[in-house]
Amino acid sequence: MHRFLTGVVLTAAAVSPSTAWAADLIEAPDGTEYVQVVERGVVLELGGGVQYLDLSDLRWTFLTNNNGEIDRKQNNGDLSEYGGAASGSLYVPLSNSLTLALSGFYSQVENSKRTRCESTDDLFCTVQNIENIPDQMNAWELPGFTTHASRDVDYWGSSAELTFGSGRAARPPEEGGFLFRFSHWGAGFDVRGIDQDNRIKLHYDDDPDNDIKLSDALDTTYYGGYLSVTGEFDILSYFTSGGFGSNLRSFVTLRGGVYGTDTDYSGRFTMEDALNPLNTHLRLSDDDVAFIGGASFETRLAVGSRTSLSLRTDYEYFSSVPEMRYAAGDDVTRIDDDDMLAVRTQLRVNVGLGSSQLYEQPIR
């Protein structure tokens, strides 16, 4: 949670069109009055909701055949779960067409899984140390065992973005609204983190008082730049006149960027055997390059002259997220990668700071 509190002035979430804006009365050449929307003031946004993460499985134990070859690995712990999320953003207009957006978010997802393995005449349940130590037994075939895995993942981010646009275009009543229009584009610097804490405890049948444990941390930091483009759509007001739809504004943002990644792994294998106790520590690191792309959909409802509520969903795709390949047979423990999908949905409160209004009822 501390990463969110210290990073709230930077963002990993896509910048939504939340710059402060107020309504000015404009008279068209034909004498019709309508509302001109211009950007003003500073907006603070705070939100909370749910985070969905889909990460690679933990595959530690495996089955071997009569020739000592690996038949298949077991899934000791998966993670395709929902958790809590919180976010904060600050939007500071620098001019009518330039805004500085500073935001951050934090989310946590966790789960647990129980896996059973029983040896047969042809396949044998096997567990192996995370490091192949010379002149030492590193793998054990057991009659049967049960693993209990717990996973705790912190997903956080912060960024700073400059958005460029020509302001909010007027919507003359005689035009009957619009279906879609360009709002602004942006460029930003982004820092994100995926910190995984995994623990697996193995109970084997022939010696239930002794456990084999695997505890590891896999922490990855992403840093890079991205571009975004935002548009506004207004279906309700386009097909209706006045009413509830006039208080709603909906936006879609597309973004993508290239990131460098730093990954650190720290693992500990423990075998609580009175005759042959083992305690192995292993540290690995890896650097890579990843693409992160996403789309955000937001609908906001004005509930006062300086306040609105919004429902926002962010879809994010990572081309590379580290995963562990544990030692099995002659294969050593190493850091590999897979892609990942993340979805975050939040209810946000948007408040204009200062005395300037943000919202005014459209004149119909």
How many strand elements? Answer: 16
How many DSSP helices? 2
> Which parts are unreliable, with pLDDT below 50 for 5 consecutive residues or more?
4-25, 34-39, 167-175
Distance between the termini: 46 Å
Shape descriptor reads elongated
Question: Which sequence of SSEs, written as H and E, runs from N to C?
Answer: HEEEEEEEEEEEEHEEEE
The secondary structure category is mainly beta
Q: Over the alpha carbons, how many angstroms does the gyration radius reach?
A: 27 Å
Number of separate domains: 1
Overall average residue pLDDT:
83
Strand content: over 45%
Order of the strands making up the biggest sheet: 3-6-7-10-11-12-13-14-15-16
**Helix share of residues?**
under 10%
Question: Any chance you could write out the topology, listing elements then pairs?
Answer:
Elements: H1 2-7, E1 21-27, E2 33-39, E3 42-58, E4 62-64, E5 70-73, E6 77-93, E7 98-118, E8 124-128, E9 139-142, E10 144-164, E11 180-204, E12 211-233, H2 235-239, E13 248-271, E14 278-302, E15 307-325, E16 334-353
Antiparallel strand pairs: 1-2, 3-6, 3-16, 4-5, 4-8, 6-7, 7-10, 8-9, 10-11, 11-12, 12-13, 13-14, 14-15, 15-16
